[in-house]
Design brief:
Layout lengths: L2 H27 L4 H10 L6 H14 L7 H32 L3 E2 L2 E2 L1 H12 L5 H28 L5 H31 L8 H28 L4 H28 L2 H4 L5 H5 L4 H9 L2 H10 L7 H13 L2 H21 L5 H15 L4
Antiparallel strand pairs: 1-2
InterPro entries: Isoprenoid_synthase_dom_sf (IPR008949), Polyprenyl_synt (IPR000092), Polyprenyl_synt_CS (IPR033749)
Protein name: Polyprenyl synthetase family protein
Keywords: Magnesium, Metal-binding, Transferase
Length: 369
Amino acid sequence: MAPAPRLVDAVNERLEEFLADRASILRSISDDLDPLAAFSERFLSGGKRFRARFCSLGFDAVRGSRREHDATATAERYAVVSASAALEVFHAAALVHDDLIDNSDTRRGAPAAHRVFEAQHRDGRWAGDGEDYGRATAILLGDLLLGWSDELLDEGLAALRDQAASRETRLEFNRMRTEVTVGQYLDILEERAWLTRPEAEQRTRAERVVVHKSARYSIEAPLTIGGAIAGGSAGQLEALRAFGLPLGIAFQLRDDLLGVYGDPAVTGKPAGDDLREGKRTVLIAIARERLSTGQRRLLDELLGDPALDAEQIRMLQDTIRDCGAVDEVESEITTNTDRALAALGSSGMDREAARDLADLARAVTRRES
């Protein structure tokens, strides 16, 4: 994937430029806002840039990876890089809110946003409750980042000469924003309401969360946003979705496994974090189908207990693995990845972009963090 480093460099440069401009705006209001700008810059300085890369390859798949160097191509490149950067800022906003909702202490091996601002309150010896301050500030920071993602996208789209492509891109972005927000709600709902739902629906409901909270937002939407910038037809955008949705499902299923079995030194999250948070994932739904009544009762009793110790985490990990749930999820990852690659092979997309998409598909489904 030779183009990836060039794209990542361009996105990083665009983010640095944009965040520096927004930091100056915040500073013009008050230097009390410096911590918001500093956290945003630090939080957005790293990451795998998967969404940015899928956005760029979605464009290449429609337009072709070899483009003319004229004014139109320059404007399109600016739009793609801006949209890719906007997706990264949107992702940052989602993570800030997600960590707050899940009451997570860490993200990428560092304190989560609400914990950073809680510490600021404590170190400053300010009035009131530090935890409340941290949570309130993180909510506002997430909202600020969400607004900034819109501004970044709009700056890119303003450069496009094809207004139909601009409108379609905006619709795709708006659809993604709605999907991930309601998907997050469905995730919260399942963690609380699962006990009152029929056993036969547990897995289907978990799969619904996978599709709406993650699969479309992580891969399908970035692809179609890139394809829309390129002026993709309805058929071309549908071909991107046919590839992106099953791959997004495989991506999230891998994430579910990492949330239970990931190495903290690699993931930047505590071992078994999803078990402490009580995530009702597809992995858990499959385990519950396979476990005996007594084992299922114990799993339900422990899942979601934030005080689970290392020995209890290991016991739950062994229980889930030994019942065959991990193997079944691995099989689902393979099946969905194969389905995505088959769709890619019959899509008629640009050959070089299709090859890069296949390489990226393997990378996102085999990752360790």
